[in-house]
Design a protein that fits this description.
The protein is about 45% helix and about 20% strand. By secondary structure, the chain is an alpha+beta fold. The strands form two sheets. The chain has a six-stranded antiparallel sheet with strand order 1-2-11-10-7-8. A five-stranded antiparallel sheet has the order 3-4-5-6-9, covered by helices on one side. The chain has nine helices and eleven strands. Helix 1 packs antiparallel against helix 2, helix 3 packs antiparallel against helix 4 and helix 4 packs parallel to helix 5.
Length: about 375
């Protein structure tokens, strides 16, 4: 793991903190000097309260309390220099400054506790998701494979995107999906679907049987109480080793794309989509697998809706098919590298509003 990016961010964070800390101390120094030199009827002491309040917006309780203490000492120096410490006006200014410093220090403490809780919860969710989403090998049977997971902005909850692959006696099966909802519950639902896929992908002879097994696993987990509330959109695919085709069952998932060897981009739109996993009991629809051409040199792109829903500053969605067609490299990893950089450049603020996952699969060209 390369630690240089994180070390660079930490160094920049420290530089920013030092620059921010200079502001309240400079304010205290300026107010103190001007207040001492000002006419007797002018009192600038109340401006010192801005120093600890400013510090509480970016620093912890210890630094906020320290800045408040410095501000109180500065007010004491001003009082002793201009009149006396027993002067009623300066006494009330000191008392008010002490009270404000205590309050903002307490609020800084609450903010710090809340930030630690948020970081801890997100770390747990990310760790759980990394355990659930095992990295795909770059070579599965005769296929070249690459995968990527793009986390959303730091303030967004982690999502339940999922993908996996499994070898069978005649080919390779893939699943990509998106759990409704976010947070640890979504990660748990993703783990359920992936576990069911890995357990049955080798046993079910037909792709439709595999989807039926996944549907039963998701419905069994609902215990009859959350039917219609929890579901998973998914695309389940099978790529035979000895046939230039791909078989697809779509369960309400965005259609995969195929980048042909000649540069054309084709969407694999099924004629009849099955309902999302977990909703088969509410929607009467047969599960059917549709076959599409997938020849040597073609690249198959699987993705979740977080890719399509990325918006730029004008609100326009990411034009995935157009960007795939513009990609010059057809190697799976090169394709995903291009799309990741282009997707983040398209998204407003270079951050995604929802997690996104992509898997690229290449059937190597015959010699």
């Amino acid at each position: 793991m390369d630690l240089r990016p994180s070390l660079t961010r930490h160094h920049r964070s420290r530089q920013l903190s030092h620059a921010q800390l200079a502001a309240p101390f400079a304010l205290i120094a300026v107010v103190t000097v001007v207040d001492i030199l000002a006419p007797p009827e002018v009192h600038l002491g109340p401006f010192l309260a801005a120093a600890p309040a400013m510090t509480a917006s970016f620093a912890g309780p210890r630094m906020t309390g320290f800045v408040g203490l410095v501000a109180v000492l500065a007010q004491v120096i001003v009082s002793a220099t201009r009149t006396t410490l027993t002067d009623l006006n300066h006494t009330f200014q000191i008392i008010a400054l002490v009270m404000i410093s205590v309050f903002v220090t307490f609020f800084a403490h609450l903010r710090e506790v809340h930030e630690k809780e948020v970081v801890q919860l997100r770390t747990v969710a990310e760790t759980a998701q990394q355990v659930v989403l095992r990295p795909l090998r770059d070579r599965i049977g005769p296929l070249g494979v690459a995968s990527v997971y793009l986390a959303a902005a730091a303030e967004a909850q982690i999502g339940g995107d999922l993908y996996a692959a499994a070898r069978t006696a005649t080919g390779t099966r893939f699943i990509i999906g998106d759990v409704r909802g976010k947070g640890l519950e979504a990660v748990g639902d993703a783990a359920l679907v992936l576990g069911a896929f890995r357990a049955s992908a080798h046993q079910e002879a037909e792709l439709t049987g595999l989807v039926d097994y996944l549907e039963a696993a998701v419905c069994a987990d609902l215990d009859g109480g959350d039917e219609g509330e929890s579901f998973v959109t998914a695309a389940v695919l099978e790529i035979p080793d000895d046939e230039p085709v791909v078989r697809l069952v779509s369960c309400g998932h965005p259609p995969p794309l195929v980048l042909r060897r000649d540069g054309a981009v084709v969407g694999l739109d099924v004629a009849l989509s099955a309902p999302p996993l977990g909703l088969a009991g509410l929607v009467a629809a047969a599960v059917t697998a549709q076959t599409f051409p997938f020849g040597p040199g073609d690249v198959l792109l699987l993705y979740t809706d977080g890719v399509l829903e990325a918006r730029d500053r004008t609100g326009a969605f990411y034009p995935l098919a157009e960007r795939v067609a513009a990609c010059t490299g057809t190697h799976p990893q090169a394709l995903l590298d291009h799309l990741c950089g282009d997707l983040l450049a398209h998204a407003a603020g270079n951050t995604l509003g929802d997690d996104a996952a992509m898997v690229a699969v290449e059937r190597p060209a015959k010699p």
